[in-house]
Amino acid sequence: MMNGLRMYGLLFRASIRSRMQYRFNFWFSSVMLAVISIVEFLLLAIVLLKFGHIKGWSLAEAGWLFSVLSLSRALYRTVANDVHNIESYLVSGELDGLLLRPIPVLSALMSRNVSFRFGEVFQGIGILAVSMSTLMREGQIGWLSIPLTVFVILSGAVLLFAIGLITATAGFWLTRITELQNITEDAARTAVQYPMSIYPRWLQGILVGIIPVGFANYMPGLFVLRGDTGWWMLPLTACIAGALFILALFVWRFGLSRYQSTGS
């Protein structure tokens, strides 16, 4: 385990050095990702500023949900960006080259094409700071909410990684998984950027019970922001993230054992 982590660290640093050889592209893509995220939040902010709230959720609360999810996603895509891009490895046969390396395939895949999401991190921290300071001034939350929020962000990153890895594993049988990723990662994540109470119950059930991305922000947010659930919601969130992570690793190993080389 420790050897695997040490090897991943070495490969991670090597990937950073290679990406920084093209610094303009690196920083330009980071800024563009931040701009896209800011525009998404501004659309929500415009609606909230006009109507005051959405299903009882204020702009500050919605900002917390949005920024927590953004930071979790940024962490996931920083440490394991190419897990999301596995389709290109399968189609081109490049995954065969990773199989020949004397390190775990997942570690090799995670350490390639490292993508630092500085823009997303900075905008996420900025929105989160403004949202939480507003809620503190209103007396809705206290200082304890800060470490609880960090806990939610970290568990959310594990959860999103697990969902992404399970989806990527489907590529061993389907090869083309872009449409599936659009559902399990992109569409589901976009949906929970906003308060889930705006959706019908059947959709809330999908986002909590089938693709449990709702546990990345909304479900723990009910306790952190409103105390609507008991303290058990946070350990439950961590348990779900941990269990899904273990399941994802098992599914990945099983899928990899069934992988058929392209022969290219």
Describe this structure in words.
The chain crosses the membrane at residues 26-51, 148-174, 202-225, 231-252. It comes from Paenibacillus cellulosilyticus. This is ABC-2 type transport system permease protein. The radius of gyration is 19 Å and the shape is globular. With 264 residues, the protein is an all-alpha fold. It has helices at residues 2-19, 23-51, 59-79, 86-92, 95-99, 105-110, 118-137, 145-169, 171-174, 178-191, 201-210, 218-226, 233-257. It has one domain (33-257). The relative contact order is 0.14.
Question: Which key features would you list for this structure?
Answer:
single chain, 264 residues, mainly alpha, 13 helices, 73% helix, 0% strand, transmembrane helix, membrane, transmembrane, ABC-2 type transport system permease protein
Largest sheet: none
Q: Indicate the mean pLDDT.
A: 84
Strand residue percentage? under 5%
Overall shape: it is globular
Helix and strand string, N-terminal first? HHHHHHHHHHHHH
Helix share bin: over 70%
Number of separate helices:
13
Structural class call reads mainly alpha
Please state the CA-atom Rg, rounded to the nearest Å. 19 Å
> How many DSSP E strands?
0
Whole-Å distance between the termini? 32 Å
The overall number of domains is: 1
Low-confidence segments: none
Secondary-structure blueprint:
Blueprint: H1 2-19, H2 23-51, H3 59-79, H4 86-92, H5 95-99, H6 105-110, H7 118-137, H8 145-169, H9 171-174, H10 178-191, H11 201-210, H12 218-226, H13 233-257
Pfam families: ABC2_membrane_6 (PF06182)
InterPro entries: ABC-2_transporter-like
Transmembrane segments: 26-51, 148-174, 202-225, 231-252
